[in-house]
Amino acid sequence: MSDNRESLKLRKIRFVYKGAEQEGTLIHENSGLLTIKLKSGYNIVAEKGAVEIKEESLEEAPQARSSKDTFIGSGPGKVTIVATGGTISSRVDYSTGAVTPSNDISFLKSTVTDLERRFTVELESRDNILSENMTPEKWVNIVRWVKEGLKKSHGVIVSHGTDTMSYTASAVSFMLEKQSGPVIFVGSQRSPDRPSSDAFTNIEAAIHFASAEIGDVGISMHSGNSDNKISLLRATRSRKMHSSRRDAFHSIGEEPMAFYSDGSVVINRLSKRPDDETVINDRLDSSVGLMYFHPSLSPEDLMNYSENKKAVILMGTGLGHAADRLIGPIREMTREGKQIVMTTQCISGTTNLNVYSTGRKLLDAGVLEMGNVVPEIAYVKAMYVLANYDFNDFGKIMKTNLRGELLTREEL
Amino acid sequence: MSDNRESLKLRKIRFVYKGAEQEGTLIHENSGLLTIKLKSGYNIVAEKGAVEIKEESLEEAPQARSSKDTFIGSGPGKVTIVATGGTISSRVDYSTGAVTPSNDISFLKSTVTDLERRFTVELESRDNILSENMTPEKWVNIVRWVKEGLKKSHGVIVSHGTDTMSYTASAVSFMLEKQSGPVIFVGSQRSPDRPSSDAFTNIEAAIHFASAEIGDVGISMHSGNSDNKISLLRATRSRKMHSSRRDAFHSIGEEPMAFYSDGSVVINRLSKRPDDETVINDRLDSSVGLMYFHPSLSPEDLMNYSENKKAVILMGTGLGHAADRLIGPIREMTREGKQIVMTTQCISGTTNLNVYSTGRKLLDAGVLEMGNVVPEIAYVKAMYVLANYDFNDFGKIMKTNLRGELLTREEL
Questions:
Q1: What's B360-390 look like in SS3?
Q2: What is the pLDDT at residue B178?
Q3: Min distance A151 CA to chain B CA atoms (Å)
């Protein structure tokens, strides 16, 4: 970790790089590479030899307002950051090279610095896990923290590992019946102590999104190749589509809700306005499964897996198909009251069980088709619907658009 | 079905459309829409009122050379089409609107018409199923038919349902140790008796690809928005990414091998040259599973599903992760000799179990990571490797690039 984080002093520098003299904050110095944050929010990463430092001074990090240093800035825009772990609050162990979770979110201070006059940001370190270990029980905790945050802030940011961020953000979206402000999930694909980290820009954008008049749950991550353009994706259409790129997140079949670059937010599509209050339904029924159809999947595989579950989301092929040999067992399961729900492993496009003979047989066997709802989101939604609605209404509610998860028209 | 198919007569017309006089073959007339095939191979679909037919004559379809009408054309390029079913040889039941499989592949004749001087195409109706019903046993039949076809033709086309076409094409690719010519899988997203069918152009392109000097297995399907541009995708990198678009197939992380438009093939990347002979290993071990990690997946779910399998491909999160609670059970399974193989549900990008603490624990528990191999392809490959190599070499062979399934560098 660089000095400025441990001491909470910022290394302000005036420097010459590629012939131009600029001012900024030296954030990292690692393996001969300097990371310098400019006032614009843009980071320069350059070899030490290529940067001539003309002047350097240590400045106090923005004034903390509580003894725990949990407040940063003193602007009118109030934002709460609920930190839950993940790469965005991880550290690299430079002896082994492994990335491990860390509950140190003080690095966030260096991000907020330039925004201190516009925002007051409260940091809450609530959990500290890599997101592959997130569970439905933990999603319920998060929506409760979000509700507390919305009581005292305009908007709430949840920092989270990217691996399962779409699952968690969707669960929070479903459990929020009303929300008085934006709820913005943010992660990063490289740890903040890597020179190429995307954490800083992602969070900076999240702070701006969390201050906008948005009544939705979104995901704030890098957009395409641009260094400083960030997308806000609707949680219930989002999916991690690449294991390592910083622009890993896409929204399926829908344009981003908003973009951020260079200090300003551009709303790309109409979003729900914030509600007058925040109301949550903090119940989920986790007896839901998600199964990927494949050519050797046997009736026994499907029935054994479904045994202790109330609903199983199938990721079928194409328009929502499964082999004929599974239709009998599916009919048996739906007769016993299990919900068998069909999505498509294509990811994009919609199911349509009325086109092919297989689809019609599946419908006749009691399968519920999810249209263009993304399979992972259908899985999360089923947990919410089972816990909060009459079981007899399961099919009707699953097919009703609740939080933008079902598109009337696919744009992409 | 239109008259020309039943009688094997072609309705040649001279017509005026949008002010231009052209010649072509009237392929369909349905719901007031005419589909006219031009000599270029391009189809015009237009309302009946917008087309003024100046002259019409019935012509014999190209001469059949056997009593079964299985040969079309008499050109020097010899191609065998192995028809297995799917939308490409399906029919719409216009009373119910449902699409059902059909073993009528005579419509292919109308596609080949313009190519009769260049090619001799032999049609073989081998199977007649929607591809959600394909199984590893059927993949073995297909590679045997392919071998027979390569004995008598330069190249072989396999027409197949699109739902599981990537699985089948990859299996055929692995089982073909040597191939004396191209093997081209082709499907369509709309049945040939729909005015908007993509079947004709896809097959026309497949015939050209099957005549090229390519020693690989590929998939010939529409490319992007263009009406007449077709991509040839490497089977072992292909994936159906949209449930209904005609450009549903993408190759993951790699550019197409070749393109076809307007009668010519453009090779986009170096491909393997055809071998001197065709050699197949027609064995697969189907005791392989494919399981999608999700936040409520329990150790019991995983262990029960894996019970009767020699290898299980996990579609993990991000760089190839699974929850901590699964690591103990995974260690137990690998100790008992089961192969647990990690891929990523992100689809794009590579696994890397050396970055995060979770990944290192998974490696230590005996997990084999598949890098950038697409999960479904890793699943098919495992069946091939289990059946044809020493079990002790499983890990080594799975991590060796055999048929282009493992990219040295991701291009996309």
A1: HHHHHCCCEECCCCCHHHHHHHHHHHHHHCC
A2: 98
A3: 29
Q: Where are the alpha helices (DSSP H) in A130-217?
A: 136-152, 165-175, 199-209
B313 belongs to a structural domain: yes
Q: What is the CATH number of the domain that holds B16?
A: 2.30.30
What radius of gyration, in Å, describes the C-alpha atoms of chain A?
23
Question: What average pLDDT does this structure show over A110-135?
Answer: 86
Q: Which residue of A has its CA nearest to B239?
A: A346
The total number of structural domains in chain A stands at 3
CA–CA distance, B170 with B382 (Å, rounded to integer):
11
Token pair of B387 as six digits: 């059946």
B294:A243 CB<8 A = no
Active site residue A70: no
Same domain flag for A276 and A292: no
Q: Is A294 on the interface with B (CB under 8 A)?
A: yes
pLDDT score, position B270: 74
Catalytic-residue membership of A163: yes
Residues A280-307 have pLDDT tens digits of 999 999 999 999 999 999 999 999 999 9
pLDDT 10s digits, A238-258: 999 999 999 999 999 999 999
B292 touching A, CB under 8 A? yes
CATH number for the domain spanning B342: value is 3.40.50.40
Of B60, B80, B103, the one marking the end of a domain is B60
Which of A286, A317, A341 is the mutation pick for testing B, counting most B CBs within 10 A? Answer: A317
Distance CA A405, CA A280 (A): 18
Does any domain span residue A411? no
Contact B285, B339 (CB under 8 A): no
**Are residues A154 and A254 located together in one domain of the fold?**
yes
| Smallest Cα distance from A231 to chain B, Å | 18
Q: Is residue B412 part of a domain?
A: no
Return the number of CB contacts < 8 Å for A and B: 186
Least confident of A85-89, A369-373, B95-99, B326-330: B95-99
The beta-carbon neighbor of B349 closest among A242, A286, A289 is A242
A334 shares a domain with A239: no
Whether A357 and B101 lie within 8 Å, measured CB to CB: yes
- Tell if the CB–CB gap between B352 and A98 is shorter than 8 Å: no
Q: Residue B408's pLDDT is what?
A: 92
Residues A132 and A178 in one domain: yes
Is B294 in CB contact (< 8 Å) with chain A? yes
Q: Which residues pair with B26 in a beta bridge?
A: B11, B36
Q: Given A226, A248, A280, which residue is the final one in a domain?
A: A280
- pLDDT score, position A117: 81
Q: What number is the average pLDDT over the span B257-262?
A: 94
Write the pLDDT tens digit of every residue in A340-367.
Answer: 999 999 999 999 999 999 999 999 999 9
- Same-domain pairing of A53 and A148: no
- The Cα–Cα gap between B205 and B186 comes to 9
Check if B135 contacts A (Cβ < 8 Å): yes
- Which ipTM score applies to this complex? 0.85
How far is A255 from A269, CA to CA, in rounded Å? Answer: 8
Q: What is the CATH number of the domain that holds B272?
A: 3.40.50.1170
CB contact under 8 A, B347 and A346: no
Report the pLDDT value the prediction gives residue A40, as an integer from 0 to 100: 64
The parent domain of residue B363 ranges over 288-398
How confident is residue A228, by pLDDT bands cut at 50, 70 and 90? confident
Average pLDDT taken over every residue of chain A: 89
The yes-or-no verdict on residue A147 having pLDDT over 90 is yes
Say if the Cβ atoms of B135 and A296 lie within 8 Å.
Answer: yes
- Cβ-contact B241, B105 below 8 angstroms: no
Q: Comparing C-alpha atoms, which of A4, A240, A242, A232 is closest to residue A113?
A: A4
Query: B8 and B24, same structural domain?
Result: yes
Residues B175 and B302 in one domain: no
Q: Has residue A66 been placed in a domain?
A: no
Domain shared by B75 and B123, yes or no:
yes
